[in-house]
Amino acid sequence: MNAEQVVEKILSQAKSEAEAIVAEANEKAAAAKTELDAEIADFDAKTQALAKDAGDDKLQRMLANARMSNAKRLLSARVEIMDEVFHQAKEAVNRLPDEAYRTLMTELMKKAVETGDEEIIVGKNEKRINQDFVKKVNRDLGTGFKGNLRLAETRADIAGGFILSRGKVQINASTDVLIDALRESMGIELSQELFAD
Question: Which CATH superfamily groups domain 97-194?
Answer without folding.
Answer: ATP synthase, E subunit, C-terminal (3.30.2320.30)
